[in-house]
Amino acid sequence: MDKINNTHPHISFHQNWAVTPEIQYQIGECDAMCRTIAHSPMRKKDIEKLLQVSLIKGAHATTAIEGNTLSEEDIENIINKHKQLPPSRQYQQTEVENVINTLNDILNDVVHKKADSPLTPHLIQNFHQHIMRNLGQHADTIPGKWREDERVVGPYRAPNHQVVPELMEKLCRWIKDEFGYPKPSFASALIAAIVAHVYIEWIHPFGDGNGRTGRMVEFYILLRQGLPSVASHILSNYYNLTRTEYYRQLNETRKNRDLTGFIAYAVQGFRDGLMDELEAIQKGQLKTFWRNHVYDTLSDRTYGKKNQFKRQREVALCAPFEGEFTMDDAIMKTPLEIIRDYTRLSDATKRRDFKELVKMGIFKEAGNNKYAVNSDVLLTYLPVKK
């Protein structure tokens, strides 16, 4: 270890960073947003949709940053069994499937089985084994095994392979002792996740797949702390979106032997991602309120014909929630049964349906024979403020 201190002084297992007031403030924002997301009621299908989006983005980000060229649409089709790639790209599909399966396994263990194990070398090797399996010649590593050769990544020479087992043991003990396991604060858990990720990049314990494994470790630590599952993709997605800066920060952190810059970079991205996630959840909640408002408004009216009620209800529920639309735009969003009903009706009847929806305050006229959802009525559901 004395030699490591000379050749790789950045791998010190000491707190070589400062939690600046700005970092502290942003971590507080992250904590508040995570609590808000965790206690935001949503319909089951909305939760499932957000979780699938999270898994797709997480799998895309953590493989794309390593060079995988599959798009989010490709990955969605793979998840839904709608797509099988040609043999020449099968390994990319396997890479993505491995990450998705590993994320799901971690999610199941931590959230559903309430696993609360500390980070251990065996656990890290297990993540790597699952991520790198069935890749054959496309993985320059033995899945789940520490490397047994020397590695150079760009300008960086990783530590000698003979000290890797000792370094990983020390990393896991340090993460456990430094950050207050088993009950770390939110701030400690977030910093622990980021620091563990960086140290795995530095130690480079495997021949290949170190970045993916580091991001799984990051995900595990945050999920164990109580990170909402629908926000699980945020850091990986941020690293991928800012790939050049990600590698620059890693390099600067190593050269300066100071993790402050990387922590600030990661925390800011995490905060921004949580803000986007919270906004998406609040939009979903707004749409749920809108559905309730439509049902309440229509149920207060007396209809001579059941079909008329059903038509107006489906048009009101299915119309685009944002932006302007024509009558035909809205009708074509409804179920096939309603579309067929309207094809048998006159234009005058269509106009009457829409006119009544405007009169009820569900739609508003936008000019040029277009309409918009009158979402302003939802302001009445909000607390009064100046």
Distance between the termini: 62 Å
Q: Please provide the count of β strands.
A: 4
CATH overall fold name of the largest domain: Fic-like fold
* Regions with little confidence, pLDDT below 50 for 5+ residues: none
Could you describe the 3D structure shown?
- The protein is mostly helical and 386 residues long.
- It folds into 2 domains: 281 residues, Fido-like domain (Fic-like fold, Orthogonal Bundle); 81 residues, Arc Repressor Mutant, subunit A.
- Strand 1 and strand 2 form a beta hairpin.
Task: Name its key features.
mainly alpha, Fic-like fold, two-stranded antiparallel ribbon
Topology:
Elements: H1 2-7, H2 21-38, H3 44-64, H4 72-79, H5 90-112, H6 121-132, E1 152-153, E2 156-157, H7 164-178, H8 186-203, H9 210-225, H10 234-241, H11 243-256, H12 260-299, H13 306-318, H14 327-331, H15 336-343, H16 347-359, E3 363-367, E4 370-373
Antiparallel strand pairs: 1-2, 3-4
Helix pairs in contact: 2-12, 3-4, 3-5, 3-10, 5-6, 5-9, 6-9, 7-8, 8-9, 8-12, 10-12, 11-12, 12-13
In a nutshell, what does this entry contain?
With 386 residues, the protein is mainly α. It contains 16 helices and four strands. The mean pLDDT is 92.
